[in-house]
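Sequence only, no structure available. Ideas?
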Amino acid sequence: MRFGVFLPPFAEFAQPRRVVALSRQVEDSGWDGLFLWDHMLAARGMPVADPWVIMAAVATVTRRIRLGALVTPLPRRRPWVVSRQLATLDQLADGRLVGGIGLGDDGWAEFSSFGEAVDPVVRGQMLDEALELIQRFLGGEAVSFHGRHYVVDAPPLLPRPRQDPLPIWGAVRWPNRKPLARIAKLDGCFPIFATSGGLPPPDPADIAALHAQLVDLGARSDIDIAVRCALSSEDPSSVKETVAALEDSGVTWILESFPPGVAPDRVTSVVGNGPPK
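Reply:
I predicted one. Tokens follow.
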């Protein structure tokens, strides 16, 4: 089991230097990764920073932790630009990047505010085409592609990432099973569970069902499954048992998650205590 910190670069954490300073604490306190939300908008009036710029800065001041954006909605990005960013950032981080991809949604009007496609069927088509393009670009090949949404005739995009292959995790809103066929071909799964109040650990039975279906669809049995929760808010006497149950169900990463607008003191306190090992 590995443990990461999952943070929205919103509000006071929209200040890049604050996140860069936090990343040093994440590494020094024994965590295995730092992952950032990737959004254009949040609640009205709340500042939002670009996670890719922040990750580049984080890559230069850390040496061990994994980093990534969970998740980047590919339908609002040009896949060749994302490919360049992934390869460049993985080079900068000496092979510590995780790519996170998903459909996104219009919950904060992040698509409709900018005239982007809102229909989830259309965005699903765009996601599949963009993912294929990114994987081919990251593989270092010339790409000739004529799809419904993208037309590409391009030479190889070099340099390639440091990692071969660069791990990509796909998001799914459980129990929606349709994205699992896509995710089964990737290196990891980032399931999102509906919760009311707080962010409790997911039910291990749900994880076991998710893992079993991914394997049935052709995924590796050791596919990464990264779950977000707030273990720091749980009863300390039950955390060890919770972690063990999640690990038995197939979870490989537990991401300590913080809500938008969280007080920086709260984050630094939790991070400073280190992961629950």
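The domain at 2-272 is CATH 3.20.20.30 (TIM Barrel).
Hope that gets you unstuck.
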